[in-house]
Each structure stands twice: as C-alpha cells, then as structure tokens.
Write a structure and sequence with these properties.
The complex is a heterodimer.
Chain A: H1 2-23, E1 32-35, E2 40-42, E3 52-57, H2 62-82, E4 85-90, H3 94-97, H4 100-106, E5 112-115, H5 120-124, E6 132-136, E7 142-147, H6 153-178
Parallel strand pairs in A: 3-4, 4-5
Antiparallel strand pairs in A: 1-2, 1-5, 3-6, 6-7
Helix pairs in contact in A: 2-6
Chain B: H1 2-21, E1 28-39, E2 55-67, E3 70-79, E4 92-103, E5 107-114, E6 128-129, E7 134-135, E8 138-145, E9 151-162, E10 165-166, E11 170-179, H2 180-183, E12 192-204, E13 217-229, E14 232-241, E15 256-267, E16 270-280, E17 323-335, E18 347-359, E19 362-363, E20 378-379, E21 385-401, E22 406-418, H3 419-423, E23 430-443, E24 448-458, E25 466-475, E26 479-487, E27 499-509, E28 512-521, E29 524-528, E30 531-535, E31 538-548
Antiparallel strand pairs in B: 1-2, 1-31, 2-3, 3-4, 4-5, 5-8, 6-7, 8-9, 9-10, 9-11, 11-12, 12-13, 13-14, 14-15, 15-16, 16-17, 17-18, 18-21, 19-20, 21-22, 22-23, 23-24, 24-25, 25-26, 26-27, 27-28, 28-31, 29-30
Classes of the chains: A alpha/beta, B mainly beta.
C-alpha cells in the first residue's frame, strides 16, 4: 500500500515539476547594446506586435551571413504574412565592428542591426556559437531557439513565425474578451 | 484504501498550490553547457605529440538566475586535462566565474566577476573567448550610473582572473560617456549624432625589484569621439599610458600611446570603410612580468580583416603592441538584380586592402655615468612610417546566386606575412602567398544541400603550397556530414607532403548540437556544418556537445 502511494505521489510530483518547468516561459534579459551609430539601446526595447526574430551573427561568420541572406530574400513576404520583426545582433568586437554598417548597407539589408561588441547580450542569452537565433512572441517570451544554419533551415523558421503570429492573434482576442 | 484516497487528495491539493504559485514570479533560470572532448594519436609528421591521458576534455556550464532587477550567475569549468593548444595552467576544475547584479532604472551594481569594455578597449577590456582559452575578467565591484538620460558613468575596482587564480595587481577604472543628442534636449532631433567619452584606468602592483624603482601605480587614459550623420560615421579614440616598464617592453620607461580612427560611408547598395591605427608601447597588463595571454587590461584590435576560410586564415595578423602603424580599407558593392552582371538575384562584391608596418624607432643609448640616465629605450617620429613590413592583405570576394538552386562565392587573396615579427621567431622572413577559394552550394530540395569548398594556397615560403577540397552535405534542419582533405603538396621536404583528411557528422536540434569528427587537423579557425571555432593541431577523434537551456 505504502509503495503504491509512494509511486503515485512521485508520478504526480514529477508531473507538477515538469508542468512548472514548461509553464515558466523565459523572456529576454535587459542588457545595453549599441545601435550602428554607436548609441546605447536596451534590449528591453526589443518589442513588436507580431513575432520577433533575434539572430546573433558576425561579419566573419559565413553560415550567419547565409542565414541572414536567406531571410533577407523573403523579408518582405514574411513581414506581410506574419508581421515579424528581425533584430540582427552582431557580435563583431572592436576589431571588425566598424565593418558592420557598410557591410549591411552594401548588401542592402533592410532589417535592424545592432552591435554587441563585448558579447554582453550574447552571454546573457547563453549563446555559445554563432549563428544562434531566437523567436519570441508579442509578449517577449522565447518560443523557439536554434543554433547553426543549414540551407533550408529558413523553412522551419517561416513555419514557426507563422505559428507564433497565429498564437499572438488568438491571445490578443482572448485579452479583448477578458476586458 | 482510505489512506490512498487521502494521499491522492493531499497530492492533488499540493499540485493545486504549485499551480497557483506559478502565477507568482519565481524568477527564471537559464544557462548553457559545452563539452569539447578529443582523443589523441601520436603523429610526429604533423607535430601531434604523445598525450599520456589519450583523451582530454574542456567543459563549461553556465547558470544564470534572474528575478526582476536581480541577476546572479555562476560558471563551472573543468579541464581534464586541457585540450592541446590551451594553457595547461587551466588543468583542474571549479567555479571560475560568479557574480550578482542589481539593475535598477539608472543604477547597476555588480559584485564578483564581470566583463567590461571602455570605448574601443584601448585602455580597458575584459572578455572571454573559449576557443582561445582567454578570460581576463575582473573579480571585484562595478557600478554603472546614469544621472540623466544620455550620460553613463562606470566605475570599477578588482583583480583579474589568471586561470583558476587571480593576478597580483589591482585594477581601478572610471569611464564617462555622453550622447550629446540625448543629454541636450535641443539637439535631440538633429541629424548629426555626437558621442563623447573618456576613461581613466590605473593599476597597482608592489615593486619588489632590488635594483629598479619600478612605478607601483601606472595610469592610462583615453578620449573618444563618434560622429554620425546619415550614412556617414566616424569613430575615433586616442589613448595614452604613463611609464610602465614590463617584460613586454624590455623594462623601458617610455610612455605609450594609441590612436584608432574608423570612418565609413554607406547607403543602400554601397559601403566604404577606412581605418587607421597607430600603436606605440601600448601593452598594458596588471602584472609587469606577465607573458603570453595573461592579465591584459586593454585590448588592441587587429586592424586587418578577419578571414573565415581555412587558407585565408592560415596566416592571420596579430597586433604588435610594442609598435605598429597600419591601415585598412574596404569597399562593399551590391550589383542590382536584373542588371547584366547582377542577373536575376544580384551580386555582392567586396574589395579589401590592409597594410601594417613598424613605427619609426631611434634607439637611446643609456649613459651609465649620468645621474638620471634616460631609460626610455627609444624615441619615435609620430608621423613616420617604419621600414619594416609586418603584414599586407589584398583580397576580392564575389558572392553570386545564379539560380534558386545554385550559388557560389569566389575569393582571391594576396598576402605578405612577416612570420618573424608576428610569431616572434627568426629566419623565416616574409611569407608571400596567393590564395584562391571557390565555395559552391547546390540545393537539391528545400532540405538537402551540398556545399563544395575548393581552396588553393600558393607560396614558395614556409611550408610551401597547399590545396584543399571539402564536401558538406546538409539535411535541414537536423543533420550534416562533411569530408575534407588539406594536402601540403608543395612542402620542400617530400616526407612532409601530408594529407590532413577529416570526416565529420553532426546533429542539431533546437539549441542543442552534437558533433563528432575524426582526422588530422591543422591549427586554425574551422567552419563546418554551420559553426566556426578555433581548433588546435591534432590527430584523433573529437566530440563536441553544446546546449543552451
């Protein structure tokens, strides 16, 4: 009898703990990074009505550039469909930081690019290697993250963005009803 | 039976309590984990020596707890024993980094280990780079305060990390940064944005030398100015260091200085960059006898472009703190879609040139009869470029997408590399190398792609010419396999014409990555399967697992 109780309680407890872990949605920490003109920007201002895509990259990282190019090709279409916003965080340090603005403009990228020259934001997000990207919902909760890039990964990114955009709509409507 | 019902009720109510508590903010725990493990086979030809442990591993785990304005973090590191290429003083394990931070609206206080950068880092930058085995974090206190919008003040004091220990010297620093447009409301909407900054850093280390009066307190200061208007940007910093006799400068008493100016102009489709840098006696460490990568307080960025391809990165430039003058220029150009050259998808071109020379140095001979002999070591004409070439790099890169399925990147590079100066050796002279790289990607389907990288390095110096071929097959979003071979066919000694073959496979799911590779590896930056890292020379099996949670 005692054994049964013990087993039942362990299972229920485990369930509670795992559901707790799942429930606690993570958000992004508040860290000071820089705009391309060198001014301070706090990451708590990373906001959007739709999904948010945060991508850590560097000018010396080929796969990062491939990933951003793949997104850039679809940027307008995806924006129309999902309303997503891209924040590309360059971890180039003083050595190559000044390359970022001409590099980005030279390629005609139109999304927002920020500088994290001493990797403060990268560390706060526990990013190990670049590329590493995150998808956040409109509440700023981290829904998905991914490290590395292979051609075709953009399809998965697009699917998740669409899903998050849909969920955002649903939760907004729920909020309206509550009000 | 009653007991069972009772306990189920109890457990259920407990569950309810937990469920209710979820609404409360218990804070968040985030972190990551990394293991790099390698087995070593002896291979005298490539210089892979016998490793008694056979297998070694570097592992790291970070935990960060955040609740509201409070953050605390620890990093556990274990090197059992350090991978080849890392300093063996890391051998062992422990909590190498721990801190607690309170971040209010305009004040931030950190106790414990922290990383900080003043301006460009010319007088202070602490950071970590695991691939380099570099960590000069300060263990102490830091306060950041913003009295009004647009003004940021930082003050810090502490000792620097030295492997699992701390360095002798005490580091103290203050920094102020003013964004003129934010601080003065009248200028808020002006197109021209101006940023001003200044730092002062000083170190203290007791002098125990019986013959010389080495200064125990050494100060360094710097000023910086950034101006931005539309697509035009100028970022400049000048740093000056008071006499700092050290092992690095052969214990001379000369002051040091550094100047860094980066200007750029860009608009959609075109970008231009010009940087200049002059350094004179600017090594700055918290221990005057420190060597290698120990206890650097400041950071002197390499002015040349960082290359990612294996052969382009074979002879990378490293800053010469004792004195150098250099420049770097680059043009980025995007040829529009639907033009003759651009084709359907457009084409990107970048052209880069950089050169670094010695500075002028006129030796001062010490007069032993003088009451106060001049111990400056040398004098230098500020505007004179030295005769000795340290480094030169000219390269052109073209990226073109031909069709939905096929794209390529073509690189040509000429490099002059002063091996004696950059690596601190003698009798190697300047290595002249011509490098060509063709990188092609073919997408079979929306998930499957094959990438081929062909590289060629021609030189009559050093180890002679090299050729390399790599194939990488990716199956998005999870799998990759790669095979590569680097062949040193031009080595003068036929016994050393070695094939560095390597096979690798990896699996990625979300923020976790598992990679296994086997083969011979030349030291350098390696990019396979979507991630770049530094890898030391070796022959064996290597396993990497990383995860962010």
């Amino acid at each position: 009898m005692m054994k049964k109780i013990l087993i039942v309680s362990i299972i229920v407890l485990l369930q509670s703990v795992t559901s707790f872990a799942q429930e606690a949605k993570r958000t992004i920490p508040s860290v000071d990074i820089k705009t391309l003109s060198g001014e301070t920007f706090n990451t708590s201002e990373i906001l959007n009505d739709g999904p948010i895509f945060v991508s850590f990259w560097a000018t010396w990282c080929k796969p990062c550039i491939q990933e951003l190019m793949a997104i850039d090709e679809n940027y307008e279409d995806w924006q129309d469909e999902t309303g997503f916003k891209l924040y590309a965080i360059s971890i180039d340090d003083t050595k190559s930081m000044s390359r970022v603005a001409p590099f980005v403009n030279g390629r005609g990228w139109e999304f927002d690019v920020f500088l994290d020259p001493n990797s403060d934001f990268k560390r706060a997000m526990n990013v190990i290697n670049v590329p590493h990207s995150f998808i956040l919902n409109a509440k700023g909760e981290i829904i998905w993250q991914h490290t590395s890039y292979s051609p075709g990964d953009e399809d998965e990114i697009y699917e998740i963005l669409k899903k998050v955009a849909e969920e955002n709509k649903v939760s907004k409507e729920e909020e309206k009803i509550e009000k | 039976m009653k007991k069972l019902i009772l306990s189920i009720i109890l457990i259920t109510s407990f569950q309810l309590i937990i469920a209710q508590n979820q609404e409360k903010d218990y804070g968040q725990i985030q972190g990551n984990f990394e293991i790099n493990m390698q087995s070593y086979n002896t291979d005298s030809i490539i210089g892979a020596f016998e490793v008694p442990e056979k297998v070694r591993a570097n592992t790291y785990a970070n935990f960060i707890y955040t609740k509201g304005k409070f953050t605390a973090g620890v990093r556990y590191e274990a090197y059992l024993n350090t991978l080849l290429g890392y300093d063996s003083r890391y051998n062992g394990q422990g909590i190498a980094h721990r801190y607690a931070t309170y971040k209010g609206d305009d004040i931030e206080i950190t106790a414990g280990n922290f990383y900080e950068q003043f301006g460009n880092g010319l007088v202070l930058r602490t950071y970590e780079d695991k691939t380099l085995g570099y960590d000069n974090s300060i263990d102490g206190m830091r306060i950041k305060y913003s009295p009004i919008e647009g003004i940021q003040l930082t003050g810090l004091i502490g000792k620097q990390r030295k492997y699992f220990d701390l360095g002798q010297g005490i580091v103290r620093g203050i920094d102020a940064e003013i964004s003129i447009n934010d601080a003065i409301k009248k200028l808020a909407d002006k197109k021209t944005r101006v940023l001003l900054g200044g730092s002062f850093v000083s170190k203290y280390q007791q002098n125990v030398d019986p013959t010389y009066y080495f200064p125990e307190n050494v100060g360094a200061f710097s000023g910086r100015l950034n101006i931005n208007r539309g697509g035009f940007n100028i970022a400049s910093e000048y740093a000056y260091k008071i006499n700092d006799p050290s092992y690095d400068n052969a214990y001379i008493f000369k002051d040091g200085n550094a100047l860094l100016i980066n200007t750029s102009y860009s608009k959609k489709g075109i970008g231009v960059l010009l940087g200049i840098m002059r350094l004179d006696n600017m090594s700055f460490r918290s221990d005057r006898s420190a060597t290698i990568n120990d206890l650097h307080i400041n950071y002197l960025p390499a002015i040349a472009k960082t290359h990612a391809y294996a052969f382009a990165a074979m002879y990378p430039f490293a800053t010469q703190p004792s004195g150098q003058i250099g420049m770097n220029a680059e043009i980025f150009y995007n040829i529009k879609r639907k033009s003759a050259l651009g084709g359907k998808y457009g084409m990107n071109i970048s052209i880069n040139y950089s050169q670094v020379n010695s500075i002028d140095k006129q030796k001062i001979t010490i007069d032993p009869t003088a009451e106060y002999p001049n111990l400056d070591g040398y004098t230098s004409d500020y505007f004179k470029i030295g005769d000795e070439l340290f480094f030169r790099d000219f390269n052109i890169e073209i990226h073109k997408k031909v069709s939905k399925k096929y794209k390529f990147a073509l690189t040509y590079m000429h490099e002059d590399y002063n091996k004696d100066v950059i690596q601190g050796l003698s009798d190697f002279g300047i290595i002249k190398a011509e490098i060509g790289i063709l990188d092609m990607t073919y997408k079979f389907s929306s998930k499957k792609a094959l990438r081929s990288e062909t590289e060629f390095l021609y030189t009559e110096d050093d180890n002679g010419s090299w050729v390399m071929q790599m194939f990488e097959f990716t199956y998005a979003p999870h799998w990759f396999v790669a095979v590569s071979d680097q062949y040193n066919y031009g080595n003068v000694d036929e016994d050393y014409r070695v094939h560095y073959y390597n096979v690798a496979a990896g699996y990625t799911k979300d923020a976790s990555r598992f990679q296994l590779s086997y083969g011979k590896i030349r030291e350098g930056i390696m990019c396979v399967g979507g991630v770049c890292r530094n890898v030391p020379a070796s022959n064996g099996l290597s396993l990497t697992i990383t995860t962010t949670f």
